[in-house]
Amino acid sequence: LLARSITLGILVFLAARPVWVSVDREENRRGIVLLCDKSESMALPEDGVTRYAQLLKLVGEKLAPALNREHIKIEPFLFGRDAESTNAEALAKAKPDAAGTDLGAAIARALAATVEPPLAVIALTDGVANANAQNSAALAGLLENGVPFIGIGFGRDSEISSISLRNVSAPDTASPKQNFRVSAQMQAVATGEIPACDLLLLRDGKIAQTRKMAATRGSRLWTESFVVNEEAEGAHTYTVQLQPPASDAIKCANKSGTAQVRITKESEMRILFVQGQLTWDFKFIGRALAGDPSLKVTGLSRTSTKSFFRQNVEGPGELAEGFPTSLDQLRPYRVIVVSSLKASDLTAAQQELVARFCRELGGGVLLAGGPATFDGSWQGSKLEQLLPVTFDSSRGVLGLDKPFHVRLTDDAFRSPIFQIGDEAANRGAWDKLPAFAQYGRVLEAKAGAVVWARHPADDGPKGKRILMAAQRYGAGLAAVICIESFWRWRLAKDANTQQFDRFWQQLFRYLGQSGRENVSLYFSDEELRLHSDVHLVIERQPEADASLAQAANYKVVVTDPAGKTVLEQKAELLPSRPLRLAFRAETPGVYLAMVQNATGAQVASRTVDLEDVNVEIEKTARDMENLRQWASLTHGFAWRAEDCRSGEELLRQIKQTIELAQATRRRVVPAGMSAWVMLALLLALASEWMLRRRWELR
Fold first, then answer.
1. Is 486 helix (H, G, I), strand (E, B) or coil?
2. Residue 445 to residue 466: CA distance in whole angstroms
3. CA–CA separation, 595 and 581 (whole Å)
4. In this structure, are strands 234-243 and 220-228 parallel, antiparallel, or unpaired?
5. Is the pLDDT reported for residue 86 higher than 90?
6. Do 588 and 561 contact (CB within 8 A), yes or no?
7. Which stretches of 215-357 are assigned E, i.e. beta strand?
8. Distance, first Cα to last Cα, the chain
9. Strands (E), 564-601
10. Considering the chain, what is the average pLDDT of its residues?
11. Is the predicted pLDDT of residue 330 greater than 80, yes or no?
12. Closest-CA residue to 506 (of 339, 285, 686)
């Protein structure tokens, strides 16, 4: 009975999981981990001396001698994206050339490599970390072991001058003989001037265009674009290369980017031109589109209250009852043009159809004309909700408008719609437009709208009157042209009819291009990087008839620059239910993402160019805030390198930090799992077994 009681007591004691708590004395910890940053940003010169050279000087002249006098062992590590143990000789010979900085990974690696937890972790770095996956693990290790973090920051607190090409964008598809843009987003970081640079556009590896970028001053983000026009069908790779000035004072994080464009004849695009009366606009727009056989315009003109005049219809029943009364009747069209109509000419149900055509089918809507089109009766209507402007109840005094010339905004000149001539002469071509006499007055642009043109003189209640503007509405696009008799441009004395035609062709392609894919595919990451996960979003567009909203089977395939499949996944898509996927990008180059339907046909595709960007040069200013955060969370401290005036002062602060950590540091050891407890349990069990055997008990 006594042996059983002892055994039961030991088991209860173990079940309670008792612990011993003791103060961890300094004699148990004699080492200090010294993390030395060898990333490329530490090679940046400042006043003729690199940051890494400043690091070696501080270690050799101040820090190491002071720690050695106190007989504190130094365990040095070199770190960039990873950390490796080193020695004094290797530290002096190391080159700061690591392609990234992961301070958290360095701390975690150093703690794992030491036999006993160190007295402290001292990081000599510029503080700029561009990877943080192991920050949580590193912080947990410091806190669990009671190790303070001490940061010494090197470098300037301001950025070093740099110019970089962030990314290149272009449409996935374009039509033959139609202008499109290959655009490069540029970024300059500087306190002074960055000299002029050369920018090259390569088409399938051969130089196609060159440009000299003017010198720039200060930090800014801007876009440089090349206008491209291809004659024949086919796929082409466009690469933009930046050639920065040969100067050690100017750094460059990335010099090139690539986009792929497939030139293909689009299927027929039909345009419905609805007007309240017969006008010249329909005639001359029809002539402008005649040069592109894939663009076809159908006219519906109101001749009286109950009669209509149809032009270019494809069957006897098309538009026989006037403006469509169902969404199915609007499906054949990609763009609807409304001109010289009042709100009473379209019922509320018909206006709702136009809104659904734009919002759900991804169609384009254009309101064009002068005062007869931009009538105050549209205020508060459904049509006004989808347009980029609000209507003005004041029409002005008719007949008293002074002739004016259209003045495009910078947003218009950046759009491929308005590229009607060679780039050098494009602005001049728009300046030669004839004067127009009348225009429709609108009140103001809506939030998110892009204004393309304003009146040069008419100051309305909200600034210069808007003459052209556009905005997205649902899956489609809506635009306005408030100029009456815009067709007069084509008949002007010095007019270039090809420029007039090109403008209308490009405008209608722009309005009709959005949202017609049954499945949309896009990359959700704002910053796309190599050596990371790239996230895709695939979404099926809503059906006009909700009863057709059934799941459909698709397959998502992503290939890398070598054509190797990096993601292949079957997906069941419901309308308006986005699916999010991810793939790992390790190889620089162009990745192709495709969505295929159940028959294997491609229904959506996107390309993305992922270059091995030098992340070390993207941020070059010393990040003391990062070091202070690590220090504050672990009861350490962070100093600027220039504040370390002597080794004795630095050592005094380090010792105070270590003593404070020791006062609060406790070591928790399980009391039950010891050799003596296990021996007592074994003896109790053995005693009971021997007694039961001796007395022949069962």
1. coil
2. 8
3. 12
4. unpaired
5. yes
6. yes
7. 216-217, 220-228, 234-243, 256-263, 269-275, 295-302, 308-311, 335-339
8. 13
9. 565-573, 579-585, 589-596
10. 84
11. yes
12. 285
Average pLDDT over residues 191-197: 80
Q: Which of 621, 631, 625, 619 is nearest to 151 (CA)?
A: 631
Cα separation of 186 and 166, whole Å?
6
Banded model confidence at residue 328, pLDDT cuts 50, 70, 90: confident
Averaged pLDDT for residues 215-235: 82
Spatial separation of the C-alpha atoms in residues 309 and 529, rounded to whole Å: 57
Secondary structure (3-state) at 584: strand
Tokens for 377? 């009766």
* Other Cβ atoms closer than 10 A to 70: 11
Among 96, 97, 76, which Cα is nearest to 86's? Answer: 76
| Cα dihedral 219/223/224/225 (nearest 10) | 180
Q: Which of 77, 75, 72 is nearest to 30 (CA)?
A: 72
**CA diameter of the chain:** 129
Could you give the angle at the alpha carbon of 327 between the alpha carbons of 325 and 329, nearest 5°?
70
d(CA 10, CA 8): 5
CA distance 455 to 463: 10
Q: Tell whether pTM > 0.85.
A: no
Spatial distance between the Cα atoms of 365 and 387, rounded to a whole number of angstroms: 8
Give the pLDDT mean for 425-451: 88
The answer to whether 325 and 311 have CB atoms below 8 angstroms apart is no
pLDDT (mean) for 103-119: 92
User: Of 220-224, 377-381, 624-628, 692-696, which has the strongest mean pLDDT?
Assistant: 624-628
The pLDDT of residue 304 is above 80: no
Task: Tell me which amino acid residue 104 is.
Answer: G
DSSP-assigned states of every residue in 139-150: HHHHHHTTPPEE
Determine the Cα angle at 533 with ends 530 and 538, to 5°. 120
Backbone angles phi, psi at 653, to 5 degrees: -70, -40
Tell me, what DSSP letter sits at residue 334? S
Q: Is the pLDDT of residue 600 over 80?
A: no
Residue 374 exposure: Cα atoms within 13 Å on the Cβ side: 34
Dihedral angle over CA of 454, 458, 464, 470, nearest 10: -40
CA distance 356 to 342: 20
Residue with tokens 């295929």: 596
3-class DSSP state for residue 78?
strand
Token pair 């206008």 is at which residue?
227
- Token reading at 48: 């003729």
In our burial notation (b when 16+ CB lie closer than 10 A, e otherwise), range 408-417 reads: bbeebeebbb
Q: What is the pLDDT of residues 263-287, one digit of tens each?
A: 877 667 899 999 988 788 888 999 8
Pair 395, 370: CB distance under 8 Å: no
Q: What was the pLDDT predicted at 26?
A: 47
Distance of alpha carbon 431 from alpha carbon 158, whole angstroms: 44
Distances (CA, A) of 368 to 307, 323, 484: 22, 17, 8
Render pLDDT for 141-174 as a digit per residue (tens, 0 to 9). 999 889 999 999 999 888 778 888 888 878 777 7
| Kind plus residue range of the DSSP H or E element containing 597 | none
| β-strands 295-302, 234-243 pairing | unpaired
Amino acid at 628: R
Instruction: Tell me how crowded residue 379 is: count the other CB atoms within 10 A of its CB.
Output: 13
Evaluate whether 454 touches 520 at the Cβ level (below 8 Å): no
Strand partners, 310: 300
The Cα-based distances of 288 to 73, 256, 293, 480 in angstroms read: 83, 38, 11, 19
Q: Amino acid letter at 132?
A: N
- Token readout for 252 is 């460059």
pLDDT in tens, 489-520: 988 877 788 889 989 998 998 888 754 556 77
Give the three-state DSSP class for 487: coil
